[in-house]
Specification:
404 residues, alpha/beta, Arc Repressor Mutant, subunit A, Nucleotidyltransferase, domain 5, five-stranded mixed sheet, binds zinc ion
């Protein structure tokens, strides 16, 4: 009897934890501060009742690195879906998943940051309609749509701040416009924040206390995750690593300042700087040659790694992270980038702030931001539901569990 009552006590916290993401039994035990066997028997009861089920990992590539098993427990599929749209810096991805973030279908095409908001949204709407139609999914079963953009998103309005590389999008109410086109609720956030969210919930940063997610691509982004929550700052501007000035005489940045990190080390800027040895080289080719150790490309990538590493060293002094994950196309250059970053970080930060920092590529690869858009859609849709029904997130889960 005592045993049954103690499991009943665990019921709501387990369901609550699984609303965030599918999890392993060990993670649930850790989150609830109970023994592995106590958690396992409570989970077994919920499985028997048909409330939760075991599933294969939705992001399997991540588990080996993070030392997590492939089998997870998840809320039983509730016949609802999420759509995510990642306006990446080189590619544009759209995906549909279930509420446990298992991808059902996805589309990908090249993306040009010079595209107007109107054209980009028309393209996004077309992809969404294609995914809905070709998978035979009813529109009313789609909970929400999440969008990731390469620029800071203002907390109060959900709109892009000036200073984004999507210059023509500033001032456009992107979520409202897309929502009108497709007839679904739409939420938007910065892509580096979404990458950090996804790595923290589904990828290589599960269980990390303070994690910095650095996105190195056509632009530079930073997501800060503290105790599993994304730190956005007072107005949504936190994490502007892109505009840390590294050389006052450097090239002019699109933000109007000179020598910003983004202006110096975006993959496009690095390719252009190879004029002397590799004229008109494409970024992908430059990264391939750098990974092979070709002197010119390897040198510019290593220099870029040093610049980022110095900025990260300062961040280590401020935040004392336990983990730094690196995402974005620049990671394709491999160890030449990461080694230069580590070396510069060690030189810049006080040793106690960096000695325990683990720095490695993200576990979700170039899908981190896409998974983040799905997590954002689910999280905001739940918050909107709870706001409408007047329940807190926790009580809402309990009430769902006993609903007739
Ligand atoms: Zn700038």
């Amino acid at each position: 009897m005592t045993k049954a009552r103690s499991h009943h006590r665990l019921r709501a916290p387990i369901l609550d934890a699984l609303e965030d993401a599918p999890r392993s039994r060990a993670e649930i035990a850790r989150l609830l501060s109970v023994s592995r066997s106590t958690a396992s028997s409570a989970i077994a009861e919920l499985i028997e009742e048909g409330v939760i089920e075991t599933i294969d990992d939705p992001a399997p590539a991540s588990r080996k690195q993070a030392g997590r098993p492939g089998e997870l427990v998840a809320l039983k599929e509730r016949r609802a879906y999420l759509i995510g749209i990642d306006f990446g810096r080189l590619s544009f991805k759209t995906a549909i998943s279930d509420l446990n973030y298992r991808l059902i279908d996805e589309l990908e095409c090249a993306f040009d940051v010079g595209l107007s908001a109107e054209d980009a949204l028309a393209l996004a709407a077309e992809h969404v309609e294609t995914l809905i139609a070709r998978n035979g999914i009813h529109r009313h079963l789609i909970e929400a749509v999440g969008i990731g953009v390469p620029g800071p998103v203002e907390a109060a309005t959900g709109m892009l701040h000036p200073g984004s590389i999507l210059a023509s999008w500033v001032g456009a109410d992107v979520p409202a416009r897309l929502s009108r086109l497709i007839g679904l609720p739409v939420y938007m956030d910065n892509d580096a924040n979404l990458g950090a969210l996804a790595e923290g919930r589904l990828g290589g940063a599960v269980g990390s206390k303070v994690m910095l997610y650095v996105l190195l691509s056509v632009g530079v982004g930073l997501g800060i995750s503290i105790e599993g929550q994304i730190f956005r700052g007072a107005y949504g501007m936190a994490g502007q690593l892109a505009h840390v000035v590294t050389d006052e005489n450097g090239s002019l940045c699109h933000c109007g300042s000179r020598g910003c990190l983004e202006a110096q080390i975006s993959v496009n800027a690095l390719s252009r700087s190879l004029e002397a040895t590799h004229r008109d080289i494409a970024p992908a080719e430059m990264l391939r040659l750098a990974a092979e150790g070709n002197p010119g490309p390897a040198r510019v990538v290593a220099d870029a790694g040093s610049m980022v590493g110095r900025a990260l060293g300062a961040l280590c002094n401020y935040f004392n992270p336990d983990l730094i994950l690196v995402g974005g196309e620049l990671t394709r250059a491999g160890p030449v980038l990461l080694n230069a970053m580590k070396e510069a970080m060690r030189r810049t930060a006080i040793s106690r702030a960096v000695e325990h920092v683990d720095i490695r590529p993200g576990a979700l690869g170039d899908r981190a931001e896409l998974f983040g858009t799905l997590l954002l859609a689910h999280e905001r849709a739940r918050a909107a539901f709870h706001a409408r029904s007047g329940f807190s997130a926790t009580s809402g889960v309990q009430i769902e569990g006993v609903a007739s």
